[in-house]
């Protein structure tokens, strides 16, 4: 069919894309490159603009400003039906009047392709539901509908596959299973996947690269490990997993390390893990990086003394402690239950220590609570 | 036993009503349709002679009105569908917060009597209305052409009167369409027209079937529009039945015509619903 830009292939490039509805700016001056063949996740809380970004890539929304290009082809003004891009919608949006076979064949028929049976059957095999070809969507379970929605998009071999919270409606167990399966399918077909989710665990399980979005902007972009180990902002530190952020001052230097003063106690911080702009910082340590020890035990690395256990939660693989520090802040400590040491009890005095390489630092003027108030399992809809 | 009995108990009032006010009159009508005038009796006195030829006579005599009834009903249904579909679509998808107001406006004419509304159309299309002078000045119709007492006026009146019966079921089924399926269609390489043909229209078929039936059936049996807006040349079957019954007191012919009309509608509707059900009409 003429007019279909199906030949366009390559990296997806968004340049200064802005979308505003009246006074409300949903997406603000967003630029990013999604390399061809990658599994890319847009992660953020409800209303952060991730779905709007996805819809602009699909062509279902028009950017107020900015450009969207696929390879060397500018697709900013291209109609959705002319883009070599397919979407797996949040609630699947299967065609209720068509059989599963016809649902999957829909895109192929629209492009006027002949002999499509083979392609449709292969797509059904890929999602392991070949026996459902003649059913109607309403006769399928949520998980099955999800797979059909995926097959209906993938069968077209688009340059780009967009997934809008595709697993949001599934129960936890099925969701985990589909995450692994989606990742496998992505490797199998080699299509660029852009996955929108509010679930940080989902994003980290599947994506090669994650862009964390907040209030219409990208906070940080990188591999899951990069984002988790060395977050740039308090929002990322808190939204991806949990973080202990402690106010401190850089008080000196020792080779490649800063010496940091945390309420009178000195710790060390690798210079290249600091995102601070001046001497005032927020020192960050992930709860599972902490070791907890009785006052008399000697430990190495960075040590904070004078803690008192406030709360103990035993959750099987680990024990979670809330430790009250002398300056009044409660720190979270996750201890693996693998050392045979008896758990600490509430009220006990403890020291906290960790390997200096795990310390990261954020700008001192950041809100240490940013990103914590949004529960990652909140409602799915953005609009 | 009580648990099985309750639903049947609940059926009794409705069934009783239908028995007394539907089945018995139908039976009575069937009886009347085969009667012949009583020898030496007064006008309006008939006796049962089981004369089935009454039907052949009635149909043959009024074949023109039969054809006209179905033709007018068909044109009315098509016009109403053409007007109501975009209207229902706009209310369902673009109505926003004015949806309910617009729906009330669709049924607002019901607050005025059916007869009054039909008479109003006589004025709209009459010499004193604005339509005729405008069309004449635009030279769309000649100076001597009038719009009243014409097939045009009858069909316009029927289209207008039955429009809400078309609009409401259409709205109900279009409103149920998930707009994301339309987005999905666009996403899967279908342009606007193809999306309408392949997704919107098939999904709204229940409304199309219900709306066309609710329009066609009463339109085929209607006589008010033809009586008020038409002329002797636009007589429909309803008008014949009315005059046979009330003026000529020819009960058997009126009954035979009623039965034939009912049977004809039933057959047409059955064929139509079958076709629509198997999506052959799509």
Automatic annotation (TrEMBL), chain A:
Molecular function terms, GO-annotated: ABC-type polyamine transporter activity; ATP binding; ATP hydrolysis activity
Residue ranges occupied by any ABC transporter domain in the UniProt entry: 12-240
SUPFAM superfamilies found in the cross-reference section: MOP-like, P-loop containing nucleoside triphosphate hydrolases
A Gene Ontology term for the protein's cellular component: ATP-binding cassette (ABC) transporter complex
Keywords: ATP-binding, Cell membrane, Membrane, Nucleotide-binding, Translocase, Transport
PROSITE patterns the record matches: ABC_TRANSPORTER_1, ABC_TRANSPORTER_2
Full protein name: Unannotated protein
Taxonomic classification: unclassified sequences, metagenomes, ecological metagenomes
TrEMBL record, chain B:
Domain ABC transmembrane type-1: 66-272
Pfam families: BPD_transp_1 (PF00528)
Cellular localisation: Cell membrane
Primary localization: membrane
Gene3D superfamilies reported for this sequence: MetI-like
Biological processes per GO annotation: transmembrane transport
GO cellular component: plasma membrane
Keywords: Cell membrane, Membrane, Transmembrane, Transmembrane helix, Transport
Record membrane topology: Multi-pass membrane protein
Residues spanning the membrane: 7-27, 70-89, 101-120, 152-172, 254-273
Family to which the UniProt record says this protein belongs: Belongs to the binding-protein-dependent transport system permease family. CysTW subfamily.
Name listed for the protein in its UniProt record: Unannotated protein
Originating species: freshwater metagenome
